[in-house]
Amino acid sequence: MTDTPVRHNADVTDRSLLSGSAYKSGRDLSARQSLYQWQSPRYDLPGLVAEQLREIRGTVVDIGCGNGKFIRRLRNDRPDLQLLGLDVSAGILAEVPGPVAVADASQLPLHDGRVNAALAMHMLYHVEDIPGAVSELGRVVADGGTVIASTNSDRDKSELDDLWQRASGDILGLDRGPSRISLSARFSLEEAPSVLSHVFGTVNVIELPGTITVTDPAPVVAHMASYRAWANQHAVPFEETIQRAGEIVSQRIEKQGQFEIACLGGLLVCRR
Ligand SMILES: C[S@@+](CC[C@H](N)C(=O)[O-])C[C@H]1O[C@@H](n2cnc3c(N)ncnc32)[C@H](O)[C@@H]1O
């Protein structure tokens, strides 16, 4: 059993922390994304998004585009589309093929109905005013357009939450230490449909369940370390906790041959 993820509101939405540290470059985001290479089944997320956009013509904006995973794929698969990447972090945008611009999801620099589709992939939980950002998505997308958002379930990777509490507990001399930060808890897969349906007439949820199986602690350690931007908000020495977590995973692998993490993410496909 793990505790319900804690809502660390200010820490997760602090724009200077997001652009100056967490997403200053794509390094930590890539470390988190790369854990999915051990997931079964494997989902081709950019491919699933391209499939949902098959009827779309014209302009697609990727808001909070990060290191450009979706833009790169759409540029390749859909050369007919005009693509625009927006993000609060100038640093991470340097890795993304243009056109791109620094912009906040709460105040999009786009005219009403200007785009035919918008993506908000694993990013709405970073926005302070989530309903306001959802209204912005509705404002900039033309009638008949599509918005695709994505996020994780409250149950996603609960083994890592448990691992963190065991490791931090060992460091602090407690049975279980404080819980780790959860990014997606502010806009979980469970809550997202009702938030989106305030603006969009149709919201279809595509759940993407899977299991990550590792036989080496390194990818788990790298994933945990990718939260280093929030290191001083964990109420426990960050590096030591991660080192201890790596030892616990090693012991499990020695005993059981592997370490498993149950994942549940999803796409929310919205039409106006
Ligand atoms: C978890 S990453 C997701 C990146 C990409 N969408 C993906 O799914 O691979 C979140 C991204 O959203 C950006 N972001 C956070 N808050 C934002 C905001 N208010 N407006 C625009 N982008 C934001 C971050 O800088 C980061 O690049």
TrEMBL record:
This is Class I SAM-dependent methyltransferase. It comes from Streptomyces hesseae. It is an enzyme of class 2 (transferase). It comes from the Bacteria. GO terms for molecular function: methyltransferase activity. PANTHER family: METHYLTRANSFERASE (PTHR43591). Residues 61-148 form the Methyltransferase type domain. It holds the Pfam family Methyltransf_11. GO terms for biological process: methylation. Keywords: Methyltransferase, Transferase. Its EC number is 2.1.1.-. Gene3D superfamilies: Vaccinia Virus protein VP39 (3.40.50.150).
